[in-house]
Amino acid sequence: MGQTIVGQVIDALKAVDIRADEAYPGGRIPALTSAVAAVRLGKVDRSVRTTSVEVIIMSPAAAGGGVCETTALRAVDALQDMGATCVKDVCRFDEMADVFYIEIDVRFFGTAMEGDWSGGPGFSILIGEQAMNRVVRFSAQRSTDENTAAISDAKWKFTMEELLPPGTSEPADPTEPFALTVSRSGGEEVFAGCTWISVKREDTIKGVSQIRVGLAQSRNVMGVL
Question: For residue 14, what pLDDT is reported?
Fold first, then answer.
């Protein structure tokens, strides 16, 4: 059995010299002499294979808010190196605990199990409203031929590879044309007017490897990929 995602986050923070542990039960905070990170599992959404981890950076009031801020930025850098998407809140002060603290929402592509973590490929895919949870690779490029007047008029040819473990049921094929959305940490790609042009299947030890090739009429990018 592998390591939990909370454990991996704690190890990543410790690797950059940030004291880290699982979040204290009941909100109890021990006396602090330096900045620390409290880590706990957040929302797990298996429909789109995303898992959130909540990280709270705390530092003693005597150290000032700047220490809390710089520690949080170091934490974000370390977690982004793991492939996470991080949203850092502003620095706040808790008068009762006498600490500065910053909350960081950390999102990973992958599925968290009770005692294990199955990382994702760094993206998630929707075809229409259907989550494609078995995709392991995806690529797309312009497809031109002698009838293409300009590169901006070219259609998009995309390849989607899935791994279907034994006993896995396949989702029903969408009605064509369909929309395909690829979500990554920086934004989304939306391919419209999609149709399948080929499919190839091969039995492997891990299950059926299925490679489908499609053609999209257009591609729209939202965010920075």
Answer: 93
What gap in Å lies between CA 12 and CA 6, rounded to an integer? 10
Q: Got the DSSP string for 36-92?
A: EEEEEEEEEETTTTEEEEEEEEEEEGGG-HHHHHHHHHHHHHHHHHTT-EEEE---E
| DSSP per position, 147-172 | T-SSGGG-EEEEEEEEEE-TTPPPPP
CA distances for 92 relative to 28, 74, 76, angstroms:
17, 18, 17
Mean pLDDT in runs of 10 for the chain (225 residues)?
A: 76 93 67 88 74 92 92 91 84 91 86 56 82 83 68 84 77 88 83 95 84 93 70
Helix (H, G, I), strand (E, B) or coil at 12: helix
